[in-house]
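Holo model, arginine. Inputs:
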Amino acid sequence: MSPEMTAHLLTEVLPYIQRFRGKVVVVKYGGNAMIDDELSRTFASDMVLLHQVGILPVVVHGGGPQIGEMMRRLGKEAIFEDGLRVTDAETLDIARMVLVGKVNRDIVGAINVHGPFAVGLSGQDAGIITASARDPKLGFVGDVSKVDATIIERLLAEGLIPVISTIGADTAGQAYNINADTVAGAIASALEAEKVVYLTDVAGLLGDVDDPGSLINRTTARELQDQLDSGDLEGGMIPKISACVDAVNGGVNSAHLLDGRVPHVVLIELFTDSGIGTLITAEPYIN
Ligand code: ARG
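Output:
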């Protein structure tokens, strides 16, 4: 890159740093970006970069593949009911050990290579996530019934990066495993975040699922709601898309669906005019 190009790039960043300084950006971390060692290191340093320019990142993570892998290692068979995976007490224990004890620690560790910034929490800590059973047949799979973001706000005020694993508890203290996409959106709404960012294993929202070139650069929550209602969206993306729609309708300024396989994807999206993934806002976006 020529020095002129570098200078141009750096000046493009300034207005975004000014605009997002002091604002909360909730990042749902998962997929390849979390499994690949190099990408996880890059992700951690990107979160530190956001933090160092005054943006307030909050990391929310799941860990489905890691839970599946541990179940295989322990020789625990997955149980299905009407095609849906059942979380029995033993599976819940494995999920808690893997999410809270391993995945969360790995993320905190990777961030803290750069300085003492990250603090790991589970949704049970300080009552962040109150959960309720989705369907007794599915065991301990929960839905979010309430978010209390007080502890997250306190940590942000202390200059820390909260890293949250998505285990919640009901009012009797029973723990549940909760979909991390949903939790990220709910936490972003509760924090009145500037952004909620989803790292996925696809380029973003595609106009045509079979054509990687058909990436939708920006759209509105209303258009996506229409597509959700008409049922012509690809299955795997539905929880992420509805979480984006709910977050934007819940007051979050913008939601972003990004390709976590691209190194530094969050920086490219936040600090350039055109971005790299799909941007979702309430009103058509004006730059
Ligand atoms: N950097 C700006 C932002 O974060 C614009 C991003 C535009 N992204 C897009 N996919 N159209 O708000």
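The two ends are 26 Å apart (CA to CA). The chain has ten helices and 14 strands.
Archived with the compound record.
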